[in-house]
Specification:
CATH topology: TIM Barrel
Strand content: 15-25%
Shape: globular
InterPro entries: F420-G6PD/mer, Lucif-like_OxRdatse_MSMEG_4141, Luciferase-like_dom, Luciferase-like_sf
Radius of gyration: 18 Å
Number of helices: 14
Protein name: TIGR03620 family F420-dependent LLM class oxidoreductase
Low-confidence stretches: none
Strand order of the largest sheet: 1-2-3-4-5-6-7-9
Helix content: 40-55%
CATH superfamily: Luciferase-like domain
Distance between the termini: 27 Å
Pfam families: Bac_luciferase
Number of strands: 9
Length: 300
């Protein structure tokens, strides 16, 4: 994308988005939740995928068709789930059908998930570089949308962020402290998008909030890229052991009342994020929409 196109996408995304990242649910529940998030005033809805299950482009298509103006983004489309030509083609078709309303975030997942799917894990940086080559090589066979869609990399470390700067339109890091956002902006420069995903736990009791954060296990997975990035930020090994210290949990997860969540969002924006997408803990799309409606007056 050109610098002008990146700036235009900044305007479409707005400052704050919402993540619909819940268990399998009927399509009508996703449609209703997406419409509620749109009516609440958020700039974007982001959704994820594993390898199998809710296929992300199908999911995005369902919500794009159910809404009118909100941007829909993958956070992230798993590159191990499809051939690079399929990734390019699927994104191009949706962007052609819904001009200006698609953002493509793609990522390399983690070794355990890839090997569980029957594939062989490879160097994330090399795999991503080769995958982007494949997408670029197949672009001529895909539709050319009137409005280009941004290509964003789930980039936590400096090398992947460098690739996001050189081969994509920006980066999409998740569950990292505000200091990480500041460092990412410095690496990317001003002409790239920086979309920050922030988990929010609406719980004012510190012990309950931190217990909920640790139950997600993102800081205790073997070979966790989050732990590796936190070490690069200067957190010592002892602070990252046994589910992480309270300090680490508090840095990665926003918890508390609406005002506390709003402050964390503003901190990321002040550190250089273009857009902060909030992810809430909820059992179904309707419950997620309830929380986003509650947070809207504070966040928007």
């Amino acid at each position: 994308m050109s610098v002008a196109a990146v700036e235009e996408m900044r305007g479409r995304l707005g400052r704050v988005g919402a993540v619909l990242m819940t268990p399998i649910a009927p399509a009508d529940e996703w449609r209703r939740a997406a419409r509620r998030v749109e009516r609440a005033g958020y700039g974007a809805i982001w959704t994820n995928e594993a390898i199998g299950g809710r296929e992300v482009f199908t999911q995005l298509g369902v919500m794009l068709a159910a809404t009118e103006r909100i941007v829909l983004g993958s956070a992230v489309a798993n590159l191990w789930a499809r051939h690079p030509a399929t990734m390019q083609g699927a994104a191009s078709v949706l962007a052609d059908a819904h001009p200006g309303r698609l953002a493509l975030g793609l990522g390399v997942s983690i070794a355990a998930a890839v090997e569980q799917s029957g594939q062989k894990w490879a160097s994330p940086l090399n795999r991503m570089r080769e995958y982007l080559d494949g997408m670029d090589a197949s672009a001529g066979a895909a539709p050319v949308p009137d409005v280009p869609f941004p290509r964003l990399l789930a980039a936590l470390g400096p090398k992947m962020q460098g690739l996001a700067r050189d081969r994509a339109d920006g980066a999409l890091p998740a569950m990292m402290p505000v200091a990480h956002t500041r460092a990412a902006r410095e690496r990317l420069g001003r002409d790239k998008l920086l979309i920050v995903m922030q988990m929010a736990i609406l719980e004012t009791d510190p012990e309950k909030a931190r217990a909920a954060a640790r139950q997600m296990q993102v800081l205790s997975l073997p070979g966790s890229p989050y732990v590796r990035s936190l070490k690069e930020l200067g957190f010592p090994d002892e602070a990252l052991a046994d589910g992480a210290s309270d300090e680490v949990v508090d840095a990665c997860f926003a918890w508390g009342d609406d005002t506390a969540i709003g402050k964390r969002v503003q901190d990321h924006l002040d550190a250089g994020a273009d857009h902060v997408s909030i992810a809430v803990l909820a059992p179904d799309p309707a419950s997620s929409a309830d929380l986003y409606e509650r947070l809207a007056p504070t966040l928007l």
